[in-house]
Amino acid sequence: MRITIIGGGPGGYTAAFAAAQKGCKVTLVENQALGGTCLNRGCIPTKTLRASADALMLARRLAEYGVTGCVRPAIDLEAVRRRKEQVRELLHGGLEKACARFRITRLQGTAQVMDAKQVLVHGADGDHRAAGEAVIIATGSRGLELPGLTFDHKFVLSSDEALKLERIPARLLIVGGGVVGCELASVYRAFGSEVCIVEGQDRLLPLPSVDGEISALLAREMRKQKIRQMTGKTLKDVRIGQGHVQATATLSPFAVDPSPDAVKDEPLEADMVLVTVGRQPATEGLGLAAAGIGVDRRGWITVNDRLETSVPGIYAIGDVLGPAHIMLAHVAAAEGLCVVDNLTGSSRPMRYDVVPSAVFTAPEIGEVGLAESQARAAYPHVVCGTFQTRELGKAQAMGELPGFFKLVADADSGRLLGAHCAGAHASDIIAEAALALRMEATVQDVADTIHAHPTLAEGFYEAARITLAALTDNAKSQGDCNEGARRTESAH
Does the annotation list 141 as a binding residue? Predict the structure, then answer.
């Protein structure tokens, strides 16, 4: 089978490698560098900056660990940028080598989908045609501009510019308290910026899957870092002049229960404004309408549960599907594998019920499955168990105390429904919970699993034991209620 893949990000290159390994002839079309947003303008650059911020914050605490001689640690932004590029180039080189190893045909240029069997590629050296039996669209997304906050790449920035700043702004105003906004707030606060986050909804990380207690913990820790948070607010009257930005914070239409202070307008001033609100599909030039490929009202491509578009033989994966399909790099990769399986004889739908997410703030956050509020809306009886990170011996030894582990379970079956953790290495630890949910494990299964000591992963074990006790108490309570009901019925 011949497959043409448009887009060389995590979804596109994962699909390309998997298809080639299954004997398919693959043509991969990309108009920029391999790796997509994740490698070049997203996941990897931000985590490289995060690593530098973590190192700086640790250097400032070295005396706590009995290490002396480090006087006034500071950040060298140019050295940080060089390291970021070195990491990116190393990983990019690995992708290039993999393409060569798997004998994947590479075409550089902008793709136009003609039909399921033909893609026209407009390159610098002219037009090329890629023919095959199927097309996979994996062109991703790009930052969304807001009215009154048009990117000028100097004072009003997208997340792309925030990853390659030539100077650290003394005052940074971040519009959007979602994942990207919170991650970059932590980084630039560590680098020395005064940071203010303006978020239209009533909490940071206002995503249904993010547990409310996680948002509350992050808000508290950010206050300790002196990161200002203005929730339930939006900006108006943005003006640029004399080398800085002036704006007014006003009540957001998304604020549900605003405080008296939130209702008042407040003037703000900053050296730069970073806009991290929303994404839009990167589908310019693809010719979706002409090819008959269906999209929703916002332009995101629509697909069935096997990721096939309205045109048989044309599939779409990754960010181009929009937020309804979870816009994460590892989801795009999983979708790529799903499509390749469907094209090569192993038909299966894409599953979204067990997708872990990681937020690289300070502290880190890891989540998978249902938040408590989601679980209570879907199940009649739910119990939760929470264990504080500071109670772990490993956390005390590391000097990393903020955080907690929280499990959400179905009280009737004991099955694990969700897991949420915040603290050191939470992004790594959440993988255990993801496997447990994938295997439909019960809280008893987790509590019966011996965890190495001393480790941070023991937090899940301890949270499971607490949840198990809550399940027992719930069962006893339900039994007492049932017995009372029977006695009442007998009396009548």
Answer: yes
